[in-house]
Amino acid sequence: MRNNTKRISLLCGLLLCLIGLSHAQGPNVPALPAVNKQSMKDFMDLRFGMFIHWGPVTLRGTEIGWSRNRQVAQNDYDSLYKEFDPVLFDADAWVKTAKDAGMKYIVITAKHHDGFCLWPTAYTKYNIMQTPFKKDVVGALAKACKKYNIKFGIYYTVLDWYERSYPVHNDGKGMAPDGDMNKFVQYMKSQLKELIDNYHPFLLWFDGNWEQPWTNEYGKDIYAYLKKLDPTLVVNNRLGKGDHVTLSDQSVGDYATPEQKIGKLNMSFPWESCITICNQWAWKPNDAMKPLKQCISTLALTAGGNGNLLFNVGPMPDGRMEARQVKQLKAMGDWLKQNGASIYGTLGGPFTPDSSFASTRKGNKIYIHLLNASNKHLTLAAIPGVHIQKAYSITGTPISVTENATSIELQIPDTLVADANDTVIVLEADKSVEDIPVMARN
Ligand code: FHN
User: Fold this and answer.
1) Under the phi-then-psi rule, with left for phi > 0, alpha for psi from -120 to 50, and beta for the rest, what region is 29?
2) pLDDT recorded at residue 33
3) Residues with CB under 6 A from ligand 1
4) What sequence ranges are listed for the domain Glycoside hydrolase family 29 N-terminal (predicted)?
5) Residue 150 C-alpha to ligand 1 middle, in angstroms?
6) CA distances from 272 to 212, 237, 384 (A)
């Protein structure tokens, strides 16, 4: 009897606590609009996109935003637009480079932390139309993406070191007294409406949420505003103050954004890793470029973690992308021509990835990615309730598969020439494998 009473009083206590928590947010905090599930699924099925960091700073070859008041004095940096004349800019060429790479979407830095706008905005003169070039870069890219059936996304910073109403100018002088965040948020809303109305991006990639003036409340206000303008819009998690790599109740946005690293395998929230093909985000002369094997294994390990890869290039001041980067991206596209079924529209897992192994899945197929195909025999853990009916390389070479109570044994024939970047093996199961819980590979 005493135990029952104790149990009931514990339950009541728990219930009161939960009721209290539900009001901890205060009765008037507006619930954020629900994410559009179809938009998110369509986005995650794309798996591979091109990030582009570009602006007048490329004239100096230093990092966009961050080199202002560092390698480049503020007045010099803020005057670069007067020289910016990328006469070789060709939006079709950029989009064809992305398409040839097997990329399915593009995200351009319409406005980075330096506040310069790559479109003819009505809300500041600090924009592309004040340069000798005088052409709408964002508009040209949006048009080319539509022409080549590539999804178009926009990067927009929530910190703006040039705009006076934003109180931080990264000039070592701390908070500016003439800052006015309400005015700044209105400026943001006006520009974001301009971008959505004129260019119809499928995705907005926010950045710069770490500085003191930005709050979760501003983030929620902007998120709700955007979703009213376009309920299908996909928005990353950098509108909120939460960390970039997770999606939590501190986040504002639809997916997590690990940066310069491959996100961890998880099936509970969507994520996209943003990683540079070189070291710098914006163009840098003679910057070190990642080898092809690292580029392809990064894509395989990202997909194997159930995430997207947003792979960054920094075009040159004359408007061209570097020939070596274009060549590298083409080689990724050639790999995807043969192996794309193991990346696009797949889910990560069911086997957890490691430095030389990843797995992806779709329907009744599991794609095994061997990033170091030296061994000819592979042992995988048996999958409870699932029978592997056959195995073959994605290039069609049959692979012997035997199963027992604890393992799946694969014997790779010597006739199969390993792919130096990533050898993909297909396992066909007797049922869908999409709902299998994530498991160790052996
Ligand atoms: O400060 C930016 C940086 O310049 C770059 O744009 C990356 C890309 O995600 N984001 C910020 C650093 O986290």
Assistant:
1) beta
2) 87
3) 64-66, 207, 259, 274, 281
4) 36-340
5) 23
6) 25, 10, 30
